Amino acid sequence: MFITSIELVIILLALITAAAAAAFSITHRLSSLPGFLPLCLFLLTIFTWILMSLLYTAEPHFDTALLFYKFSLAAKSYAFVFLMLFAYCFTKPHACGKSAVWIAALIVPTATGFFLARYPEIFFQNIEIVLFYHFKQLLIMRGVWFYVDVLYNYSCLLLSVIFFINHYKISVGIVSVFNKISSILIILKENGDILTMNEKGRQKFSFILREDKHMPYHTLIDTWLRERGGTIREDSGLSMVCVEEETRKYYELLKSTITDSEGTITGSFIELRDITVQQELIAKLFHMVNFDQLTDLYNRRYFEDRCEQLNKAEFLPLTFIAGDLNNLKYVNDTYGHAYGDKLIKAAALSLSRFTPEKGSACRTGGDEFVVIIPNFTEEEAISFIDKLSVYTSSFTEKPYGGIDISLGHAVRKNMSDTIGQVLKEADMVMYKDKEKKKVSFRQNARPYNK
Q1: Is 138 within the bounds of a domain?
Q2: Pick from 141, 199, 225, 246: CA 20 to 30 A from residue 167's CA?
Q3: Rounded to two decimals, what is the model's pTM?
Q4: Band of residue 6 on the pLDDT scale cut at 50, 70, 90
Q5: Average per-residue pLDDT in the chain?
Q6: What is the CA radius of gyration of the chain?
Q7: 170 vs 441: which has the higher pLDDT
Q8: Is residue 449 part of a domain?
């Protein structure tokens, strides 16, 4: 018994609905997929092939059934070709637009459709449909083009398999390299959600990605910074992430967009490169260049650079406090240079103890010091010197006694005064303080009790 008209209509409606839903889904999701056009044509010809085969099966009349059968053969021939073209375009996107490939691939199925319509004897010399109960049987004497078409179809299928296998091997190799890269690599969708990341990234963020592996990128970064007490800062165009893990870690954050062949942004590529070693080396070099080796105060080089940085009205009032040790030569001659160095370090420690965070204590010479403090008033400078003097007067160190240091200050209140003039003024005040010292360092020094 053949399929009834109502059953055929139901089947056709179901197939059309499924095809429409599939086409919408594919168009919506895969529009940027390499080989999107041949994929759509492949699905269309597959659908036509199935539909014509069903119509042929359901049609009780010989001529109409034979027509449906011919359509199904032509659709099948095109389906194999479009499958091969999809595999070719998907695995070789750079060559997808070459029209010569399409023209050469479509010659055989186009000839098949032409011969079936005009010269069927080339395709099959004789065809007969025998009607049996429940099914039909074809009795065919095949022609030369039938074998040509079959051989071409299976060649297209074989080529499709070869293209996909090679692509799979290349993809596996790329994924392997992707996972072996030491940096953290994250690929984002167009909406900012995480599409994938390499093995290093999955290990680093395993404590965040336990439930949602495709969370928004900003959620991942915010959670990471919050959990690890991290910050992101911009430095000379460089985005750098600093986090507290087992030790302090620094990462350079690089971001680039991913575009399709038409230049439309389809996603983003994030790289977090561990630059902890480089930052530690930079910090060491900075310390070596800008800090005094004996006292660990800033050196004269840094002081001069800092003066240039603070040579702006926004840093006024700018205070300079000059200091100079008294009788250091006597200590060196009497107790040795090692004790003189201890005295210099003790004075430097006293200065750094009272220097505010916004200020810089510098050793500008052998026993000469300068503290430079932006946005620091005259009253604050006097208070600074008073506190430092009280502290140094109570300081004692065997064998030479306390720290005897002369101090002077000057405040730059307007830009018409040069920094050199203000520094000279601070030195003059400091030398006046030296003249006021009544008790010599020799009298205050105490020898060891032997």
Answers
A1: yes
A2: 199
A3: 0.57
A4: low
A5: 83
A6: 43
A7: 170
A8: no
Tell me what pLDDT residue 236 has.
Answer: 73
Q: Please tell me whether residues 346 and 358 are part of one structural domain.
A: yes
Report how far residue 77's alpha carbon sits from residue 293's, in angstroms, rounded to the nearest whole number.
83
Dist. CA 326–CA 134, nearest whole Å = 120
Confidence of residue 30 (pLDDT cuts 50, 70, 90): low
Alpha-carbon distances, residue 141 vs 75, 123, 224 (angstroms): 21, 9, 72
Q: What is the pLDDT of residues 390-421, one digit of tens each?
A: 998 887 777 666 788 999 999 999 999 999 99
CB of 251 closer than 8 Å to CB of 231: no
| Phi, psi angles (nearest 5°) of residue 193 | -75, 155
> How far is Cα 310 from Cα 374, in angstroms, rounded to an integer?
7
H or E segment to which residue 189 belongs: strand 184-189
Residues 58 and 154 in one domain: yes
Specify the pLDDT at position 441: 44
The answer to whether residues 223 and 236 touch, using CB atoms and an 8 Å cutoff, is no
Please give the residue range of the domain that contains residue 240. Answer: 181-281
Task: Answer yes or no: do 57 and 132 share one domain.
Answer: yes
Instruction: Report which residue type is found at 324.
Output: D
CATH code of residue 373: 3.30.70.270
Q: The domain spanning residue 209 has which CATH number?
A: 3.30.450.20
Residues contacting residue 151 through CB under 8 Å, at least 6 positions apart: none
Say yes or no: 317 and 401 in one domain: yes
